[in-house]
Amino acid sequence: MRQLKLMATTLVLASLLSCGKKAGEQTRDSIIETKVEQLLSKMTLEEKIGQMNQISSSIKLEEMGPAIKRGEVGSILNEAEPQRINALQNIAVEESRLGIPLLIARDVIHGFKTIFPIPLGQGASFDPDVAYQGARVAAVEAASVGIRWTFAPMIDIARDPRWGRISEGCGEDSYLTSVMGAAMVRGFQGDSLHLASSIAACPKHFVGYGAVEGGRDYNSTYIPERLMRNVYLPPFKAAVEAGATTFMTSFNDNNGIPSSGNQLILKKILREEWGFKGFVVTDWGSAQEMITHGFAVNDKDAAEKAVNAGVDMEMVSHMFVEQLPQLVKEGAVSETTIDNAVRNILRVKFQLGLFENPYVDTTKPSVMYDEAHLLAAKRAAIESAILLKNKNNTLPLSNKIKTIAVVGPMADAPYEQLGTWVFDGEKSHTQTPLAALKKIAKERNMRVLYEPGLAYTRDKSTQQFRKVTNAAKRADAVIVFVGEESILSGEAHSLANLDLQGAQTALIEALKRTGKPLITVVMAGRPLTIEKEVNLSDAVLYSFHPGTMGGPALADLLTGVATPSGKTPITFPKMVGQIPMYYSHKNTGRPATRNETLLDQIPVAAGQTSLGCTSFYLDAGFDPLFPFGYGLSYTTFAYSNILLSATKLQKKDVLTVTFDLKNTGDYKGTEVAQLYIQDKVGSVTRPVKELKRFKRIHLLPGQTEKVTFELPISELAFCNIDMKEVVEAGQFGLWVATDSNSGKELSFEVVR
Ligand code: NOJ
Q1: What is the arithmetic mean of pLDDT over 13-41?
Q2: Which atom of ligand 1 is nearest to the CA of 151?
Q3: Which CATH number fits the domain that encloses residue 500?
Q4: How far is the CA of 284 from the centre of ligand 1 (A)?
Q5: Could you tell me how far CA 572 lies from the centroid of its own chain?
Q6: Hey, what's the torsion of the CAs at 131, 135, 136, 141, to 10 degrees?
Q7: Which is nearest to 433 in space by CA: 397, 454, 458, 408?
Q8: DSSP string, 225-271
Q9: Which atom of ligand 1 has the smallest separation from the CA of 202?
Q10: Calpha distance 254→268 (Å, rounded)
């Protein structure tokens, strides 16, 4: 008998393990499923629908309390005050009939108190550990006040810097965003979701929002299903695989269907194809906005369409509580649909351990701005900064520089350097470049002359310029900090003109005229069109809003304590008219040759076809200002002996690429080595290049390292002419290089 029992246990364990999950997790999962079913069986229809309702903290407490008590609220967003959170939780747990705890949510995007670089900056680090640590620190700080759910990571692929929200994602590339987004999911959710320091992640915005027409926020998108599957969906799939427990729908209507009513993406792809077990929340009022879109007649119609499409929870618009009881009665929404939505929500609440520990411990010492958090934020800001130009090794500042002029509206702008989505970040804790440079100057016996010149980035007045140029004339080098105030990027902050605002360019021109070495540091929420400023400057360091520790990070980089290693996570256009511009474009039938005749070279009365019939702009040519993956270092790197394990591979094989990377310069430094491929001929046309791997490699001067990339051929799959995800046999190009525009092409073949 004992023997039999043992065998049975072994069999159960074996089958649990075969599902790819650890036995402990499986057991916990099945216990949770049982609990969910038990609870669900006790719930009235109204209580079920209540779980599907998320309200905003702006609702008056007198209204909120009774609604929670009646079981009409599943989640509250925007609470951040622990005593209040505990009080609300107490009503839910002690006074509602079934005592189901609330899920407290907030936008903790790139930090709670300790602010990390904006996600676009984190993308520039090409370092998943930066993304992981950023999310982990954010989770630890946010969870300490009772927030257990964040609306992040934002993993929208965005190829139009006019769109203000480009700052919130990791840039234009599907693979980079997949890797970084998955790391963020893991960081937020920690080792196990039920730990008090873990918060549920919410990959957003599902899906296609980054492709809004003309970069105008909330606009329509036209992404065909194949492009959707090849470019926009992979980061979300990676987020599911990383264990993301919730998803948020997007505001856009894609090809006529608003995401909150889109069965293809919410049901077929997310649930059926990817097996997502968490819950889906709408964006703020986005289900109700289906009425404005002209997709639903009224609240009732919108609620029906959203729930039947696969939405589980509604953010703030209350249509579910108001309309679903009647819709169920009429049979327009089945109770099974409601049950499934509630199951998805309760499952996450159980996973978070909210039933056992609904309250936040307010007696614990504060974890805000912990020394380790600040250090991690500084490291992230260092790795995120991109050196775009460094003529004659202007940087790092040599010891011969005894006086520096620190100028510009972003040199000492503690709020502006934090970037978008910083509800909780405090400017009093921000360390600015001016403060950090002054500190280093003291240690180095260097003098700092500070003249902002402009009060803020949109300031058009040149009145203070004389003071600035006087300071510059007295200095050995000038560092001008320009860019965008944080309000100029983020949600609903799109721009049609991406030049530096206000009189910032005029300031750079005035400084250039002093003849002093000119170092421009840009802090912004997007790539700006800075061709002119790059030409005027001797060195340019680009830092997407770098957060709390941006100052010390930039000061270390400028003075050579650290070496830049960031790479552009997005193509920098020369001018707005080139947008959209991205490295992973198609070849077209008439690709640019780069020998085209440009505007100033065109003879008068030139013949119609004499300019070359290729795909380029007469006034901007073909190339961007800086390609994807670009970034310099104080040292130099050489790639050699690039070898492929085989040149003919089968679909089940793994291609191993090895190469030697040598630090050929005088500084220790870090190179982000990148592996690109091109599928030469497909059943549908394929991009000219696709990033498939990247690695940060640290090297001392003169040091060489053998680097290996492993690329399973299965990762060359794409959505083909039959809408099937397959690897197609044929020739492939391969590059191992320092950016998307460099390297020598190698080739291999995938055989049938
Ligand atoms: C609207 C934004 O689109 C979304 O990203 C955010 O999470 C929600 N508001 C909640 O604040």
Answers
A1: 76
A2: 7
A3: 3.40.50.1700
A4: 6
A5: 17
A6: 150
A7: 408
A8: HHHIIIIISHHHHHHHHTT--EEEB-SPEETTEEGGG-HIIIIIIII
A9: 7
A10: 16
Residue 451 amino acid letter: E
CA distance 297 to 311: 18
Cα–Cα distance, 156 to 238 (Å, whole number): 13
Structural domains counted in the chain: 2
Q: Which domain holds residue 525?
A: 378-559
597: tokens are 């005749």
Question: pLDDT (tens digit, 9 = 90+) per residue, 505-547?
Answer: 999 999 999 999 999 999 999 999 999 999 999 999 999 999 9
Instruction: From the CA of 204, give the closest atom in ligand 1.
Output: 5
Q: Closest residue (by CA) to atom 4 of ligand 1?
A: 283
CB 173 within 8 A of CB 232: no
Q: 283: CA distance to ligand 1 center in Å?
A: 6
Q: At what angle do helices 335-351 and 299-309 cross, to 10 degrees?
A: 60
User: Ligand 1 center to residue 205 CA distance, Å?
Assistant: 9
Tell me which H or E stretch contains 273. none
Cα–Cα dist 261/309, whole Å: 5
Q: What percentage of the chain carries pLDDT values higher than 70?
A: 97
Residues 554 and 658 in one domain: no
**CA–CA separation, 727 and 382 (whole Å):** 38
The verdict on residue 73 lying in a domain is no
Question: pTM of the predicted model, to two decimals?
Answer: 0.96
Q: Is the Cα dihedral 717, 720, 726, 728 positive or negative?
A: negative
Residue with tokens 């903790």: 108
Contact 550, 414 (CB under 8 A): no
Q: Which residues contact 599 (CB under 8 A, 6 or more apart)?
A: 618, 619
Q: Are 137 and 377 in contact (CB under 8 A)?
A: yes
**Could you tell me the CATH number of the domain that includes residue 676?**
2.60.40.10
What are 299-308's pLDDT values in tens digits?
999 999 999 9
Q: Where is the domain boundary, 500, 525, 559?
A: 559
Residues across the chain: 752
Residues that are catalytic: 283
Would you say 363 and 525 are in contact if contact means Cβ atoms under 8 Å apart? no
Please tell me whether residue 20 adopts helix, strand or coil conformation.
coil
Residues 437 and 536 in one domain: yes
Q: Which residues line ligand 1 (CB under 6 A)?
A: 107, 151, 204, 283-284, 491
Considering only CA atoms, which residue is closest to atom 10 of ligand 1? 284
**β-pairing, 53-56 with 149-150?**
unpaired
**522 CA from centroid of ligand 1 (Å):** 27
Q: What residue owns the CA closest to ligand 1's atom 9?
A: 284
Q: CA distances (Å), 98 to each of 91, 103, 477, in order?
A: 11, 15, 68
Same structural domain for residues 401 and 503? yes
Question: Cis before residue 527, ω within 30 degrees of 0?
Answer: no
Pick from 425, 398, 414, 525: nearest CA to 142? 425
* Integer CA distances (angstroms), 322 to 66, 77, 504, in order: 16, 19, 52
| Residue owning tokens 């350097």 | 417
From residue 75, how far is each of 71, 72, 97, 475, 588 by CA, in Å? Answer: 11, 10, 16, 57, 49
Tell me the residue type at 571: T
Whole-number pLDDT of residue 612: 80
**Domain match, 541 and 669 both:** no
pLDDT above 90 coverage of the chain, percent? 95
